[in-house]
Amino acid sequence: MVVEGSEPDGEAQVSDDEDPEDLEVFQPTDQWQELRPGQAVPAGSHVRLDLQTGKREAKLQDSPGEEEEGGRQGTVNTESQTFTAQELKKALKHFKEAAVVPTDEEKEALSAQFRPLDELKRDMEVLGMMMETDFQIMSRLLQQFNSSAASLEERVSALRELEYLVHQVDNAQDFITIGGLQLVIGTLNSSEAVLQEHAALVLGSALSSNPVVQVESVEGGALQKLLLLLATEQPLPVKKKALFAMASLLRHFPFAQQRFLKLGGLQVLEALFLSSGGASLRVRAVTLLYDMIVEKELILQHGLDPVPDASHEARLRQYSQVSLLPQLAERGWCGLVPELLASPEHDVREKALRALLAMMPPCRELYRGDRALAGALSLLQEQYQGLAESERGFGDEDDYFGELLGLVESMLGKLR
Question: What is the predicted pLDDT for the residue at 130?
């Protein structure tokens, strides 16, 4: 089998492995000749590869109009020239020497089209000075908030922008440095409900997963002020944000959880649960308690970190001293949480079921004697069996109702 091709018009093909000065230029004729390794092929030559022998052969292109093998027409570039490597290098040298040098007028015209580099550098420096860092923005916003000339709307606007910035861990810690954290904690006592609401939101955002801010907040009296907001008559938005900040302060912070219990936090949440018109607060309160129960269980079972640090033992000891479950049973939470099962919302029922299962150790005997709870669980089991069956019939991979059915059946199994 023979594969044919043509060398493209242009420069001779040169192997990368050979020194161009040592190359031998192949001289084609109208007959096929074997190509030796390293030979350069002139442009316009006809080249083929014999697949049986593996040898390359070349010749001149056929004359115009002459039929090539395979039924293709070939053309010959009779004006093409061949050059040795030395000739090409010499021509390139003369080309460089003959390069056109622009005149002074042409240089000036070209420069007029572009700005000088020094001028561009100066402009970039000015732009850099005009761009505020997050630290500078927070400092400016605090000044705006503290200004005696600032309106209520301007102060609220400053808090909104600060809340966005303190989500970042480093910004939240810088917020402490410039006095922003203590200012926000103090604003929780404001006579303006809208300022209390946004101050609690800023505080909760800064506290989220930020141990440094958590410690500073407890030392700054944030826990007492948040409990006061939750225990006194306040608009619903204020209480929602205060509960959010409370949850951010307590999560993964056993020292704060101990202080919360000592300061009567469970009583405050109980009053919040029993208050009228606060259904969303009831769910949030139960979710917070559930998170604290599960957090402690996971830490005591699996430890804190794969590589314990110097504070590892101290934190484990602090978690062991958080006596949440016994106090929940003592304060009557075993009878409060089942009330959420009457909600028509599946999400609320899910949170209630998870909390009930987490509170099972101190509440089991009470649950077993609660006929209303047993009836509610039986009704939920029947309902979720039908919903789970429909869910599977539609091919829904989420299996949400199947998961809820599993929670109900787990509760029933533990009460037998």
Answer: 55
